[in-house]
């Protein structure tokens, strides 16, 4: 009889736990969707804010491990987005181009042709190109272009260089 009581109590607790989890998930998902939608609407970037400007890579914020680094020569690492959904880059002694898609605040940079010269041991060209290939989001903060990298919260920071009128 003791085993039957323990089994009954276990079943009651299991049903109670499942009910609480189900109720919690339903409420949390709806609340998260609302907050996420509001944030996405606020973060939608206008193409006019970012095209026809030479953006210079000025820093990197990484989350794991948490660190911030400054790019010593931002003018050597540039990104130029054009209205025809193409971009051009300078990665130290190399230049390249490609296409991009922008949907809301989601940005994808498709690789294109690039020169592959060796820029020296102190160059950040390989890191820069690797980061650009993993861009997922774009936003503007304090007049800086911010590119989100992957899903872990890393961010590339760009300052305005030249504005090119077309």
Keywords:
single chain; 166 residues; alpha+beta; Lipocalin; 2 domains; nine-stranded antiparallel sheet; 3 helices; elongated; DUF306_Meta_HslJ; HslJ-like_sf; META domain-containing protein; Hsp_HslJ-like
Question: Could you explain how this protein is built, in words?
Answer:
This protein is 33% helix and 38% strand. The protein has 166 residues and is α+β, with helices and mostly antiparallel strands. It has two domains: 1-43; 47-163, Lipocalin, CATH 2.40.128.
The percentage of residues in β strands lies in 35-45%
Output the CATH class name of the largest domain.
Mainly Beta
Overall pLDDT confidence: 84
The class by helix and strand makeup works out as alpha+beta
Cα distance spanning the termini? 86 Å
Approximately how much helix is present in the residues? 25-40%
Number of domains: 2
CATH-assigned fold name of the largest domain: Lipocalin
- CATH architectural group of the largest domain: Beta Barrel
Number of discrete helical segments: 3
Low-confidence stretches: 27-41
Total beta strands: 9
- Which geometry do the CA atoms define? elongated
Structural Rg: 24 Å
């Amino acid at each position: 009889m003791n085993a039957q009581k323990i089994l009954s109590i276990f079943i009651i607790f299991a049903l109670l736990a499942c009910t609480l989890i189900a109720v919690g998930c339903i409420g949390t998902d709806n609340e998260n969707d609302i907050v996420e939608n509001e944030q996405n609407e606020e973060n939608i970037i206008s193409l006019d804010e970012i095209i026809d400007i030479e953006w210079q890579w000025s820093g990197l914020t990484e989350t794991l491990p948490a660190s911030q680094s400054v790019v010593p020569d931002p003018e050597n690492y540039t990104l130029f987005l054009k209205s025809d959904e193409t971009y051009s880059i300078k990665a130290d002694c190399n230049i390249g181009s490609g296409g991009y898609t922008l949907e809301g605040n989601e940005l994808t940079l498709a690789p294109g042709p690039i020169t592959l010269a060796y820029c020296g041991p102190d160059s950040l060209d390989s890191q820069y190109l690797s980061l650009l290939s993993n861009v997922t989001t774009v936003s503007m903060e304090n007049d800086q272009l911010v590119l989100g990298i992957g899903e872990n919260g890393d961010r590339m920071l760009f300052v305005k260089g030249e504005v090119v009128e077309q």
